[in-house]
Amino acid sequence: MVIVAVLAALVVGAGSSLLAEVIMARRVGVKPQCPYCQEPYSPVRWSAVLALLTGRRACERCGQPLRWQRLAGEVFLMVLWGVLAARYGLIWRVALTMLAGVPLAMVLVTDLETRLIPNRIMLPAIVAMAVLGSLMGPAVPGIGTWTWWQSLAGGAVGLGVFGVLVMLGTLVWGEGALGQGDVKLATYIGLVVGFPLIIEALVLTFVGGFVGAVLLLLSRKGSLRSFFPYGPFLVLGAAATMLCGIEIVLWYWG
């Protein structure tokens, strides 16, 4: 079961990462191609994981390697789906959680590559999750009972918290400290994990972001005014909550 889930994630992750690349480049109706020279990818290079395993990372025409951000998106989805299948089996709420992870993988690719979280990814994902969350509950397999408003309340908390942070960041550091893409991503994550688990997801995000910022400063490759993408930390905080949110709460209060 786990192997099936990982292989399915490889296929879906490759497709979603390629779609994220297409969205970034604003291309439509073309086969997957090298972003540097527009040479069409050979089928094995449609997946960054397979390209890496087969030694076909470099473009046959220009010699440029596949972008590692695509690899990050594929690996993220493979790990998420594999752990979900191993822990919970393939029940319907696991399927919902797997589906909810696809936009997160796409955002991981775009934010790491261009520091942008496209509306063409987030807006459809928010609408879909608002409907599914109201009908099926949060995408957290370990959750027990739920009510129809939990996902909507989680989305409202994510929207409110990051909306305030964007305003404060703009006042303190100027434009670009945090963006509207981060607000939309936090809203989506709130819809995915629901209330009150959105609080846990945000705490994990802030802890991860703080550790990452400290490591950046210690490496002397950044300063207090360096751009620091928060999207990947939001994604990782959401994934941890989706996988272990209930256990983390029980451990903390136990």
Helices and strands in order:
Elements: H1 2-25, H2 48-53, H3 68-88, H4 92-114, H5 119-136, H6 150-173, H7 180-193, H8 197-218, H9 231-253
Helix pairs in contact: 1-3, 1-4, 3-4, 4-5, 4-9, 5-6, 5-7, 6-7, 6-8, 7-8, 7-9, 8-9
Keywords:
mainly alpha; 9 helices; 254 residues; globular
Radius of gyration: 18 Å
Number of helices in the DSSP assignment: 9
Question: What is the string of helix and strand elements?
Answer: HHHHHHHHH
Total strands: 0
The proportion of residues in beta strands is: under 5%
* Integer tally of domains: 2
Q: Class by helix and strand content?
A: mainly alpha
Main β-sheet: number of strands, strand sense, barrel status?
Answer: none
Flag low-confidence runs: none
What is the global morphology? globular
In round numbers, the mean pLDDT is: 87
Distance between the termini: 32 Å
Q: Percent of residues in helical segments?
A: 55-70%
Describe this structure in words.
This protein is mainly alpha-helical. The protein folds into 2 domains: about 1-90, no CATH class; about 115-254, no CATH class. Helices cover about 70% and strands about 0% of the residues. Helix 3 packs antiparallel against helix 4. It is globular. The chain starts with a helix and ends with a helix.
